[in-house]
Amino acid sequence: MMLWRPGKLLSITWVLLAGLLLLFPGALGAEGAVHRAAVGSSVLLPGLGEAAHSNSMHWEFLTGSGPQTILQHNGGAQAPSIHPPFAGRATFHPSNGSLLLEDVQESDSGTYRVTVNTGGRKSLEIQLEVLQPVSRPQLRASPLLAGASGQVVCEVAEGRVDTITWRKDGQPLGPGRVSRVSGGRSVLYLRPATRTDCGSYSCNASNGISWKETSLKVTVEGLSRHLKHTLRIATVAVVFAVVSAWGLIIPVCQSEKLRIRGELWRWLSSYTCGLVCIACILDGTAGILWMQEEGPSVAVLLLEITLTYLIVVTFLVATTVIFQPTDFSHLKSKKAQRTMGYAAPGAVVTVVLSSTFLIKNIYHRHAEGCTDFMDVVILVVSTAAVSALPLLAIGLCYHTTQGRDVSWMDKASSLEMSQPGNKDTIPS
Ligand SMILES: *[C@@H]1O[C@H](CO)[C@@H](O)[C@H](O)[C@H]1NC(C)=O
Ligand SMILES: *[C@@H]1O[C@H](CO)[C@@H](O)[C@H](O)[C@H]1NC(C)=O
Fold first, then answer.
1. Which of 80, 286, 401, 411 is the Cys-Cys partner for 233 at CB 3.0 to 4.6 Å?
2. By the 8 A CB rule, do 178 and 166 touch?
3. Where is the chain membrane-spanning (predicted)?
4. How does pLDDT run across 57-88, given as a tens digit for each residue?
């Protein structure tokens, strides 16, 4: 049973092959040779050799509507006339019976038959396929985000395409990974895109007469647009917090005698607290954006609550110092002082720690792709410069007025707020 099976299969195959050969004579051997030519080129259709010599000969073009005579040669040396549509662009060689077609067009594709009368009739059929050369494929990738699906598309605008093959970094891509959508379009699906999909892809489109190849460097992004915004916001929050930290530290480092006071001190405190307040708002926004992308987390929610409290306190301090300095001097209770004294530094530390944590997580996410990390240098430098400018201005005013305008300082000192270390200057 097992022994005769392969034999039977083989014989069936032979029968099928023989049938095919009967149906399509010329599928094998010189008789059915397919000639392929590019549009506009010349094609030599071979005759039947010496058999042609001094015998009558007939060239035909077999179209759907029946055979169409190209020429009828009755032996002898004089050249026969060539019928349209080949008149003027075909040359007949009486010596060997071959026919040269010039400037072939796609409409010339089809079967050509030459028949010779040498006592018995003898004929030969030739398939001609006239093709447009393929144009250069266009290779493009959809925006590729790590973890999301994407695709790379190879598209050929002109010319019949027989095969499209892909390579990645020089290695052939298995046909299972790409799908041929239509003749001139092949798609590589990345479901999902990962870091390993980064590389140089090339797409080779070919037909019988030509091939063209295009390459594309494909990169996968680790960060969505959303996370990039989150990163920018968190970065600005850190910069603001660091700049306002200077506004808090500098007065503490000054010696008792030269300490900044009065109007300037009010501006400095208000600006510093305002900046801390904005840093808290930005940090809170970055946290919310992060949760939108990653889902809620207890740590971030607790952070949001803390930040809300800090935003309210720093906002109150900043506005009160500037708009109602007298109210402020009434807030003399130890508890209020402590709240004020610790709110701003506490907010700075909170913002710096939580933003750094966020940035670190975003960086990890970025490493799932293969692009360069977002360049935040310009953002950092410009926000630092802009936010430090008022501090510099206050510092400059301090240096020009210091020690010169004592009466002005005396007047202004009536508005001064209590601060650890200079309680003695507060009017009662
Ligand atoms: C037939 O003759 C022509 C000119 O004599 C030559 O160019 C051509 O190559 C020949 N054809 C074949 C099939 O030998
Ligand atoms: C492109 O494909 C054609 C046909 O398969 C092949 O002959 C050619 O060498 C290929 N080109 C490259 C660069 O692999």
1. 286
2. yes
3. 233-252, 264-291, 297-323, 343-364, 376-398
4. 888 898 878 888 888 887 766 777 888 888 88
Supply the Cα-derived Rg of the chain in whole angstroms. Answer: 43
Please tell me the residue having the least CA distance from ligand 1 atom 12: 46
Instruction: Say whether 138-218 and 30-131 share the same fold.
Output: yes
Helices 377-401, 225-253: axis angle to 10 degrees equals: 20
Query: According to CATH, what is the number of the domain 30-131?
Result: 2.60.40.10
Q: Structural domain boundaries of the chain?
A: 30-131, 138-218, 225-404
Distance CA 242, CA 172 (A): 52
d(CA 106, ligand 2 centre) in Å: 23
List the beta bridge partners of residue 289: none
Asked if residue 42 has its Cβ within 6 Å of ligand 1, the reply is no
The ligand that comes nearest to the alpha carbon of residue 161 is 2
Provide the whole-model pTM: 0.67
The domain defined by 138-218 folds into Immunoglobulin-like (2.60.40)
User: 399-422 burial by CB neighbour count: b if 16+ within 10 A, else e?
Assistant: eebeeeeeeebeebbebbbbbeeb
> Which residue from 252, 417, 238 is spatially nearest to 330, judged by alpha carbons?
417
Cα dihedral across residues 158, 163, 169, 173: positive or negative = positive
Least Cα distance to 236 among 392, 394, 381 occurs for 381
Q: Find the ligand nearest to 95 CA.
A: 1
- Asked if residue 167 has pLDDT above 90, the reply is yes
How much is the pLDDT for 336?
A: 65
User: Is 91 close to ligand 1, i.e. is its CB under 6 Å away?
Assistant: no
78 contacts 27 by C-beta, under 8 angstroms: no
Predicted confidence (pLDDT) at residue 270 exceeds the cutoff of 60: yes
Ligand nearest to the CA of 210: 2
- What pLDDT, on the 0 to 100 scale, is given for residue 4? 45
Angle at 317 between CA 354 and CA 343, to 5 degrees: 35
For 35, 102, 107, the CA distances from 39, given in Å and listed in that order, are 13, 10, 10
